[in-house]
Amino acid sequence: MALMTLLWLLFGAVTNFNDVLMPYLKDVCQLTDFESSAVPFAFFMAYFLMSLPAGVVLRRLTYQRGLVLGLLVMAAGALLFVPAANTRSFPLFLAALAVLGAGITLLQVAANPYVSALGPARTAAARVSTVGVAFGLGGSLSPLLGGLLLFGSAVVAGSAAAKRLAALPLAEQLTQKAALVKIPYLALAAVLLGLAGLFFVVRLPALDALPADDADDTDRADPAATGLAPRRSALDYRHLVLGIGAIFVYVGAEVGLGSFLIRYGESQGIAHLSGFTQSVIRGLNVATNFAYYLFGATPAPLDVSGGFTKTVGAVLVASYWFGLMLGRIAGIGLLRRLPARALLVGVCGAALALVLVSVLSQGETALWPVVLCGLCNSIMWPVIFPLAIKGLGPFTKQGSSYLIMAIVGGALVPPLMGLLATHGGGLRVAFVLPMLCYAYLLYYALSGYRVR
Question: What is the third-level CATH fold of 1-208?
Answer without folding.
Answer: Growth Hormone; Chain: A; (1.20.1250)
